[in-house]
């Protein structure tokens, strides 16, 4: 049963369904642990990875089944990684990844998701950094966070498209301009978009009936 749930977790991770993967890895870990199967250690690593990528508010090591393994030499790196990710300490997370690169490269599954983990961590750190500004220089952000400018810009674009940041990038000034939109203004814009779509639809119907 543990093998089946582990394979299911890997499949869900590949499909970008981290929450489903988290459930499967947890069940697989429990099954391995109850059977005394040494595979439980590797599966616990996958559980921690899925937990971070799903941005679950629950610390996996608060679970009574996983807690005894917190100080396990094979798990320590993942424990530290999890702590850095939860605290949004991007530089610390990068340091842990660099120091444990050799051990992590031994597992192709973990390596396949390290970049995604790093991107999410950087995105979270970036979001927290810019929230206190109304305007901020992209080169300065890149220097402060120790992330290449091109990546900072790509992350900002995604945050804007995902509506986690309300603003735009001034390409000439190389700045992020943040805007405040109150509920009434947002409602007006939504109504304008809806009206525009309705008029377009009516024109299309009229042309087809003509």
UniProtKB/TrEMBL annotation:
Xref: Gene3D superfamilies: 1.25.40.570
List, for all copies, the residue spans of the domain called PCI.
21-183
Superkingdom field:
Eukaryota
Question: Which InterPro entries does the annotation name?
Answer: 26S_Proteasome/COP9_Components, PCI_dom, WH_DNA-bd_sf
Q: Entry's PROSITE patterns?
A: PCI (PS50250)
Protein's name in the database: PCI domain-containing protein
Could you tell me which species this protein originates from? Answer: Rhodosorus marinus
